[in-house]
Amino acid sequence: MPDLSGIVKAYDIRGVVGEQLDAGLVRDFGAAFALLIKPEAPAVVIGHDMRDSSPRLSAAFAEGVTSQGLDVVSIGLASTDQLYFASGSLNMPGAMFTASHNPAKYNGIKLCRAGASPVGQDTGLAEIRDTVEQGVPEFEGQRGTVTERDVLADYAAYLRNLVDLSGSRPLKIVVDAGNGMGGHTVPTVFAGLPIEVVPMYFELDGSFPNHEANPLDPKNIVDLQAKVREVGADAGIAFDGDADRCFIVDERGEPVSPSAITALVAVRELAKDPGGTIIHNLITSKGVPEIVAEHGGKPVRTRVGHSFIKAEMARTGAIFGGEHSAHYYFRDFWRADTGMLAAMHVLAALGEQSGPLSDLTSAYSRYAASGEINSTVDDQVAKMMAVKDSFGTRSGVEIDELDGLTVQLPGGAWFNLRPSNTEPLLRLNVEAANTEAVRGLVDEVLAIIRS
């Protein structure tokens, strides 16, 4: 019996094509997914990104689904949030073939139930893995059919209905698609709007010839920053490979923190739905819950990870949720994450006033932060305990362990230390009143971790 634990992750299936993933195995995953959702739905919608292996693997998955008697609606090239739109609007379970920002040799499958409800380890992925490992039973009935459907225009229209940019002042925006799916969706979404798009790396190329399609790594937005300054743009937007995350830089080419974007979008959503609940993970700036509360909203803190965010949104009826990783979730988008919709909110806010983006976002950026700092360690638990022991005896310190170790210090500074689930790493995030205080706290914690 094969062991698939190395590629069936917490939220998706992901591995190296030709070594860990091939068409035969993906066909079995398709059949197993069909068995899982057969009682709920007669058809599955499938989309894929621009990687060389994606059309072949998505076709193999479709073969598996139809082998169990279910139909397939293929939407072809798509961003991940475009697949979520299809799942929500068509009320079908979905499968998206992408490895997001991972290198070209990887591919993967993100699965959801009808209405873009996520499928993770606890909600079906473990069952799918077990079915494939034990051998998918043959289906003796009639095979399903495959039909093709283009939903790009409908996706764009839906987003434009949620955020009206038609009355914006003229804006010049640089967009770095990183040779990923933003190059597929941006031209249609922004067509006809008073927004001049200066495109960078819009050519769909799964080999990522210009830079890794991960905008959270500072080296991958250097080209965007330079272009914004060169052309005098009002803002810059970088998308990751499957375009479900977006990262913003202002007119100076300076990065805008995802926490500031979370707060800005939260305020706009609260204006439409006063008193609503806003979800934020525990790595976002403490400015987020402060601003949400000041605007009459109810901030709710969660663990890191989209399964926790989406579950908490469903439980609380939240209108919006944001993560430090630049994932943004909207109730009006089936609680799914969409970088495009978040970017449109930022542009709408910018277009409604005459000042630059740096002035607009400064109101949502209250504290200094370190960003995520990774340390390779031999024993995650021992190092976590050493940090807890060091800070836990100090007067006025508060510690919680909702997700890793969160330490609140007198005076407002705090840090979170979390173990990676997949690597021998500890991830440190620090926030304080100013960069000097951040630097001092980072040095203090790292001295313990790396000793």
UniProtKB/TrEMBL annotation:
InterPro entries: A-D-PHexomutase_a/b/a-I (IPR005844), A-D-PHexomutase_a/b/a-I/II/III (IPR016055), A-D-PHexomutase_a/b/a-II (IPR005845), A-D-PHexomutase_a/b/a-III (IPR005846), A-D-PHexomutase_C (IPR005843), A-D-PHexomutase_C_sf (IPR036900), Alpha-D-phosphohexomutase_SF (IPR005841). Pfam families: PGM_PMM_I, PGM_PMM_II, PGM_PMM_III, PGM_PMM_IV. Its cofactor is Mg(2+). It comes from Amycolatopsis nalaikhensis. Residues 372-446 form the Alpha-D-phosphohexomutase C-terminal domain. NCBIfam families: PRK09542.1. Keywords: Isomerase, Magnesium, Metal-binding, Phosphoprotein. This is Phosphomannomutase/phosphoglucomutase. Residues 8-134, 154-253, 261-367 form the Alpha-D-phosphohexomutase alpha/beta/alpha domain. It comes from the Bacteria. Belongs to the phosphohexose mutase family. PANTHER family: PHOSPHOMANNOMUTASE. SUPFAM superfamilies: Phosphoglucomutase, C-terminal domain (SSF55957), Phosphoglucomutase, first 3 domains (SSF53738).
